[in-house]
Please model this.
Amino acid sequence: METYTPVRAPRGSQRTAKGWIQEAALRMLMNNLDPEVAENPEELIVYGGRGKAARDWRAFHTIVDTLRRLEDDQTLLIQSGKPVAVLRTHEMAPRVLLANSNLVPKWASWEEFDRLDRAGLMMYGQMTAGSWIYIGTQGIVQGTYETFAAAGEKHFGGSLAGTITVTAGLGGMGGAQPLAVKLAGGVSINIEIDPVRIRRRLETRYLDEVAGSLEEAIRRAEQAKNNREAVSIAVQGNAAELLPELVRLGFTPDLVTDQTSAHDPMWGYLPPARSDEDLNVLRARDPEAYLRRAREAMAGHVRAILELQRRGAVAFDYGNNLRAQAQIAGVENAFGYPGFVPAFIRDAFCEGRGPFRWVALSGDPEDIRATDRALLELFPEDAKLQRWLRYAGEHIAFQGLPARICWLGYRERDRAALLFNEMVADGRLSAPIVIGRDHLDAGSVASPYRETEAMLDGSDAVSDWPLLNFAVGAASGAAWMSFHHGGGVGMGYSQHSGLVAVADGSDQAARRLRLCLTNDPAMGVIRHADAGYERALEVARERGLDLPSLGV
Ligand code: NAD
Model:
């Protein structure tokens, strides 16, 4: 067996590939697997349970070699993390097209996926893992902040000051929760089973304190709440045990949610185990029995959330499909609390607003600082953005290549991208910038228990939209595009597309950026206008979209 050697993206303004897009793809693939970035790089696992960047190490090395020889008029095809072909296309075409974890709907179950995975025929791409634009926990911080800030605005008079949030899961993305709640002014108790994850969040300053027990965490949280002090507290334990324990103790938080990897009941969500029991043995010996255990645990977890909601907590699902798993295990009213998108985010989606991220290929933090300053000047009227960028500049630790994220909408992302391109061209930035986004975005995903939950016209499960988004990105000059299945909520529950663009300072880059970063967020406005959202129709009219069926 090959020995594992940690991977780290090259830095600087010299490239080894034939064009900057190929170089960007190579560096971003490597950056996804940087031990500072990935949750379990040795297994090629980036985040989200078992979201991988490449099928296996052999595939990884072949991708790297192929990107290095790829010409400016060729396109590399990736099928579930394996490079399968190089085609002659044209200069404006994407340099890489990726399809990860896609199954024909009738076969789209974890069982079938696992069979194919074991046979070496597939890998799970999650969202940005398989599409090489994951940037560590910082990537999700701002989206998580947007959600908690919106909860503060909607339910608590403007911020989360003087409130306590209870959540679980301090993994790759869940690890953003303590910082996001703190940023929104609140106190959080974060339950996590794995002490290594807790330590990691402490070290990267996403988390403030660890309590020795649940009771201690509650005491500390109440003290902070009374002082209106924003602080994050972790407690080690299983959410399926500690949430019911909260109910027994009679403690009701102001907000309750969860970000364990419940979307993957076999590998992501850990059911409680006796101290002398190794659940890996049960999983290997009797996967069905293991699944029942995991789902029963999730049922108890959801019942506790529903009870806390009944006692007055604002409960929302944080996009991990916990409710569906509990429903399978017999909790009939598992969907008695809403998902975070209909609860807090849909208005932003109507404006094509969503997570816009960029990465400095130079590796120089000064490049990100320069882009921060440029965006502060470009969008002086956006108070939330101003607050976020100033905070992030001071407090967010970089992981891997320096990167930034903020939420921008339709007719904003193209302006930001073109500005970055100018800054590369005139030397204000020392190397090209990679621009991408999460698949969790306004017009790129069909996920009835998450992004498209409770659509106005009932079109939650229509996945023509992410397919159109994938095609539009490819037709509009994206650097690489991906189409995935099962991200966020697991097999059978979602289809989504990812876009990455590169600002290398060239005229061709400007043309690509103008097209793809206008048309990509436009898909969010179009999708929501089509579903009848008034705000999306307004945006479409104001910002000049052409929607023939709506008379706009
Ligand atoms: P991850 O696999 O990196 O982390 C999951 C964490 O949960 C791990 O640290 C694990 O130890 C912990 N855990 C598992 N079972 C537990 C239990 N019973 N009790 C306590 N802790 C437990 O995954 P991630 O990247 O952090 O994502 C977590 C989930 O949140 C995924 O399902 C993802 O799809 C979802 N998610 C949604 C959004 C969103 O914006 N809606 C964003 C991020 C993640």
About this structure: Residues 359 and 403 are 4 Å apart (CA to CA). The domain at 138-338 is CATH 3.40.50.10730 (Rossmann fold).
